[in-house]
Amino acid sequence: MKLVMAIIKPFKLEDVRQALTPLGIQGLTASEVKGYGRQKGQTEIYRGAEYNVSFLPKVKIEVAVSDDLAARVVEAIQTSAHTGKIGDGKIFVFDLVNAMRIRTGETNDEAL
Amino acid sequence: MKLVMAIIKPFKLEDVRQALTPLGIQGLTASEVKGYGRQKGQTEIYRGAEYNVSFLPKVKIEVAVSDDLAARVVEAIQTSAHTGKIGDGKIFVFDLVNAMRIRTGETNDEAL
Amino acid sequence: MKLVMAIIKPFKLEDVRQALTPLGIQGLTASEVKGYGRQKGQTEIYRGAEYNVSFLPKVKIEVAVSDDLAARVVEAIQTSAHTGKIGDGKIFVFDLVNAMRIRTGETNDEAL
Amino acid sequence: MKLNRSVAAGIALTAGLCLTAGAAMAQSATPAPVLNKADTAWMLVSTALVLMMTIPGLALFYAGMVRKKNILATLMQSFSITALVTVLWGVIGYSLAFTDGHGATAPFFGDFSRVLLFGMGKDTLAPGTTIPESVFMMYQMTFAIITPALLVGSLADRIKFSALMAFVTGWLLLVYAPIAHMVWAANTGLLGKWGVLDFAGGTVVHINSGVAGLVGCLIVGKRKGFGTESFAPANLSYALIGASLLWVGWFGFNAGSAMTADGRAGMAMTVTQLAAGAAAVSWIAIEWLIRKKPSALGAASGAVAGLVAITPASGYVAPAGGLVIGLVAGAVCFWGATGLKHMMGYDDSLDSFGVHGVGGIVGALLTGVFADKEIGGTPGLLQGHPGQVLLQAEGVMVTIVWCAVVSFLLYKLIDKTIGLRVSVEEEIEGLDYSLHGEILH
Amino acid sequence: MKLNRSVAAGIALTAGLCLTAGAAMAQSATPAPVLNKADTAWMLVSTALVLMMTIPGLALFYAGMVRKKNILATLMQSFSITALVTVLWGVIGYSLAFTDGHGATAPFFGDFSRVLLFGMGKDTLAPGTTIPESVFMMYQMTFAIITPALLVGSLADRIKFSALMAFVTGWLLLVYAPIAHMVWAANTGLLGKWGVLDFAGGTVVHINSGVAGLVGCLIVGKRKGFGTESFAPANLSYALIGASLLWVGWFGFNAGSAMTADGRAGMAMTVTQLAAGAAAVSWIAIEWLIRKKPSALGAASGAVAGLVAITPASGYVAPAGGLVIGLVAGAVCFWGATGLKHMMGYDDSLDSFGVHGVGGIVGALLTGVFADKEIGGTPGLLQGHPGQVLLQAEGVMVTIVWCAVVSFLLYKLIDKTIGLRVSVEEEIEGLDYSLHGEILH
Amino acid sequence: MKLNRSVAAGIALTAGLCLTAGAAMAQSATPAPVLNKADTAWMLVSTALVLMMTIPGLALFYAGMVRKKNILATLMQSFSITALVTVLWGVIGYSLAFTDGHGATAPFFGDFSRVLLFGMGKDTLAPGTTIPESVFMMYQMTFAIITPALLVGSLADRIKFSALMAFVTGWLLLVYAPIAHMVWAANTGLLGKWGVLDFAGGTVVHINSGVAGLVGCLIVGKRKGFGTESFAPANLSYALIGASLLWVGWFGFNAGSAMTADGRAGMAMTVTQLAAGAAAVSWIAIEWLIRKKPSALGAASGAVAGLVAITPASGYVAPAGGLVIGLVAGAVCFWGATGLKHMMGYDDSLDSFGVHGVGGIVGALLTGVFADKEIGGTPGLLQGHPGQVLLQAEGVMVTIVWCAVVSFLLYKLIDKTIGLRVSVEEEIEGLDYSLHGEILH
Ligand SMILES: Nc1ncnc2c1ncn2[C@@H]1O[C@H](COP(=O)(O)OP(=O)(O)O)[C@@H](O)[C@H]1O
Ligand SMILES: Nc1ncnc2c1ncn2[C@@H]1O[C@H](COP(=O)(O)OP(=O)(O)O)[C@@H](O)[C@H]1O
Ligand SMILES: Nc1ncnc2c1ncn2[C@@H]1O[C@H](COP(=O)(O)OP(=O)(O)O)[C@@H](O)[C@H]1O
């Protein structure tokens, strides 16, 4: 199994979720993060000097998938989260040693 | 070493923490996440159409453990986070290549 | 590639970011987490019994790097996040199977 | 509120009165009214209270119902409307609404004699009252501010800031000012002359804003994601704080509309409170029955519904009437914000029409039912005067038609020029950042 | 507050008075009181101020001290109590508390002559005052609202919403109304007749709510996780905003209790402010000494403690007395919310008893010490009248006993029927979602 | 505000007046002033309104502009200053500021005759007014509270709590009290005697706090990370709520400064509103042009700038003057908070000087330009009296010099003893936790 983690622009979350459904993805976990990268934020005007805001709001998605699905999931995320503008984010893939559904105790692919 | 990541119902955090203590777990990291899965949220009534809320508040736990403890940690989490109702969450296990305690620079099992 | 994850004291975020820049790190992702460990929080006085607050605010940093950089990144984080006081946090390193830049579709080292 | 012609002579009694032994109340004196400091004190305070209804009251009420990415923009809407209408009202709005006007247009519009407030001296009294015209003008300004701020509720989450400012400018002069004139301009207003009762703005404020909101949300269209995405309010505590401040400020709105600090003001305050409480209770009860859980947003919405419905009636009805109006309003507006809206399928984002439009209509009609001769001098249906209900219905109709037609034209004009709605990207990104460059952290 | 019998003749002077040359003040006139618009204006405002104390003041003060999952439910408690008590007060509560009553029960209860406020006309004056009865009734309503809202602090985080609504209904009629009657019903109230001084509600409001809260938290039991989990307040800024609004609104509470806008009201406002400031300073100072860090919650709690303690004394004591009462209250209530509570081991979640109960008792007794003949007509211990302290202690005792006994029975009754406490799952999940289906995002 | 000597005889008319047939207004009577309940009611309310400006108004306005880790500490600053100044004012501050004083120091300081408020009886009237001295003292207290609370804006995010409390104590007695005395002490104050116009505190409150803030931020130094880190406000909604409450409360500040509820108060309220609205519009417009996006913080800052600038002028200028002052203030303060600050390179964290200092100076000078004989009795430049502008400039200069010099010495004294600034670790960790042991979750 793989865990696919993606850092995306917040307003793309819904699009990504919808792109994953046809692949049979039934669950995922999202969280609010702050991203630092090439994209620079706006300039502050009042109440502080002018400077570039370095951290911008992003959403992190984590979705555990079986090995054979991983590539298609990465592709679906890339396509649906893509705007072509700087700051679109990253996708990272990890090996998963084990997975378990708490409710039933099922493990591995059945747990996803 | 392994990193055990669990997505659980928020109100189970304290129970899980207490279940891990007897295993000698001295530290863990928790964060607020939003989960999408089989469990559906309540219906919104006012100020929006009726629909099912797709993302529900969950808590993510990350705990790094030595290889021999991993299985018992997974089990302890599964037992203590279990309610038997849909939405109980998932446990994922990763391989850890390295670990370090920032304060002392100790590495690997000593760092946990 | 490796993904370096560090749990640090919140006010060290800026220092860590600056320590990584000279290594050529162009991006990272941060999030607010709550840490449980040896460090204990303050005692509550009113509106509740006295007890030790178990979870303290921490910041989690995730940075994906090429394999050859990993060791230096870990070292830079350890040095810059270090205060020598309890609660300084941990650094964990994972293997990354794959990485992709959403904007361009570039993969692996080019995506970082 | 302009109907209160009886003039309390106030502090400076004329010598003539003093010599008339036994004259207990000054109301029998007909000479020129003089300034009454007690009335003035009360109206200064009422003005502050009604301003507080919009900022921060309504600003918070609405901001508490939107998603996080639109909270600042929603606060900004109320705040900017306050600033804009302040200037407009001083420059021309007050003059259009509250001067007598000339000839054929006099029933609908005032004239230009108070442009830039020229002619309003420090010691000028407002006609038919015992308070300075400056205080009367200011009090009316706070009504002119809250009305357009209310209608934004229907357009929340997607209206352009520039379009909104343009719309409010036109709407204040072409819809608010004439309708306020028709209802409240003491000597010439069309509906006032007909005998339509509207103590504190059921037609002028609530129906008016509700209808303009409805027309707006039909033209602007549904929010992206309507019916599929969660629009769950991000911070309902703001909505509760806002509703609370609206409630408290409403004493200035309704009891202040007596224009004097006397028993009628006290009675107006009483029925206002009873209606608010009763409507909150009835909304919560219905919700509890139907949905199994009484919600905080339901309680707040109920209270506001009751306050809306009692607005035209306060000053005319007795306590029992206030209670009943509240109970009815809670139930009907619950339906307005759920059943009706879903039935018709429009996206009245924060229920401006469902609560203010519907509640305003209910209140205006029930004023005709419960009006009590002992309180406001006019009997209603229950006192054998069914004609009053008809009159009220006529007032409602005129308001709806004028407001709907002119608002429609204004929206269309702005849509063709500036454009009413933000781009899809801006809407998804959130108005806070896309329109104002700010983020709530 | 009902003790102010001197009647200012107000605006409409009788001709007779006018002819009496040299009569500088109208107070020498004993004929029937007439409406005074200035007093009316002030009492209309005071009513708004006291309502603001509960919503949003107290609502925020309490919501700022709970965990995130209970913030909305805590706001909802204050808001719903406001709605519920509004209706109850109009229907029957006011009649029970403020009419004269009959026969043997007259010292404890009023009668039914004002049920549904029948008989309260637009021009009826409140007995012994110069303001409309409607305004008096409304002003008293705001006190009847805040008192049960205060006691919820002891039950926070675990009380069922349905049980709370039931309890408040019974408590208002069986505890609040009789105690208000005993203290304030001008002609028949037991404690008022004895000569117990309570200007603005030290017994009726604060001891009453504090004791009912204490009894409640003993019966309901400790929150799950008490002493082991963090109950750290999620959003203390709400507590600071709430305390601020309580402070501001308290001017209506205390200075308003003069029922007139004169020097006594001014003096009541003065001592209120001095006590609040002094108590905040003393609480912070002690905390700084003992705990090394002065906390924001400490400052807010101190100010509230001072406001509570000065409540019965305002209108009776001079500025220096107000300062001392504040300093003492800050210290004693600090102990009430820390030492005492831990010593006894009950879980008074938001310190309703520790601050309002303890502060109310301190204030009631110190009123007997510092009462100043020049201010309120009654001398205290320091002016050689130790009996007043005893009288005050008797008033405190009667209040405590009545309140504790009846509250106990009510809690037990409800616990056996509806059940007082939510289930463990609901408590852990948080009342916001489990009771009201809402979440703060 | 002390300039209003005309005394309305109020409720208790003397028989003599009654017998003088045709005397319409009581103002022709010159005997000793008597209490006017309507004025008293209005001033009681104004006092509440101005207190609300500081807590929660200013507390929120400032807390909304800092980073999350400093929000509670910022609220705490306003709240604690309120408590501290309350005590100081009652003990000695009021006496120093508002009694006549003796001999050579009389133009600068009062005397000790009101220490602990001794001698201020329940029925004492404030000299030259128709309200109780207690109410006057309280009203002035709220001004003494907000002024030091305003200056903290320049020191936010890095000032020690202990140092702040010490500074405020010294500053209140050595800067605020004397400058208030100079401007407002009716019989002896230096600047008042010269003829400097300051209706509601342009010099005493705004220039004073702005200059003390500027001196402070120069001495305390820039925040760590200034110019390199993001200081983006964490919760701008607080700033919007705070600005709204400041706006509403400002009616008490300016219209209350009439000390009476009459046409002058109404006019003061009118120009206050117009200036606030116009300044918000002008700030937003400029920002929209220059920065492409109108920000919520800009709207709020603009409104406050207008309110600051109209403060000395309210009560002296006509509506059109108010509008112009607002438009100018919005533009100039925009520059004060951006251009000027960046040019000079100081870190005036929340723009106390940029808005209050600059706005106060603009307002004080423009008062001399737009003063209207019809409104306040004094003509300005536009009515052919250029000398008034000079007088105003002199008033500004005296204030700046006195304030800057004494503040400088005080800061230095405290820096050498307690130390003004927190440690770097505390600053990075945030004042909430490091100074007060509390965290916003
Ligand atoms: N090496 C990295 N490790 C972890 N997260 C990264 C890394 N590089 C970028 N990110 C995340 O991806 C986001 C987008 O990166 P950015 O450089 O702004 O745009 P782009 O990827 O389009 O060039 C960043 O805000 C950050 O959250
Ligand atoms: N494939 C997945 N990858 C990551 N997180 C998942 C995945 N499936 C479920 N989750 C997480 O687990 C939570 C519970 O899943 P859900 O399907 O609702 O219940 P259950 O696991 O009991 O069937 C979800 O809310 C989500 O946070
Ligand atoms: N085994 C672990 N797994 C995950 N996170 C951990 C673990 N141990 C510690 N942490 C994180 O590291 C933080 C610091 O740990 P702590 O024990 O307080 O200090 P130190 O590492 O200096 O001994 C904790 O707050 C927690 O977030």
TrEMBL record, chains A, B, C:
Keyword Transcription regulation attributed: yes
Keywords carried by this UniProt record: Nucleotide-binding, Phosphoprotein, Transcription, Transcription regulation
GO biological process: regulation of nitrogen utilization
Bilayer-spanning residue ranges: none
GO (cellular component) term, any one: cytosol
Keyword Metal-binding (UniProt): no
GO MF annotation list: ATP binding; enzyme regulator activity
Coiled coil: none
Protein name: Nitrogen regulatory protein P-II 2
Record organism: mine drainage metagenome
Gene name linked to the record: glnK_4
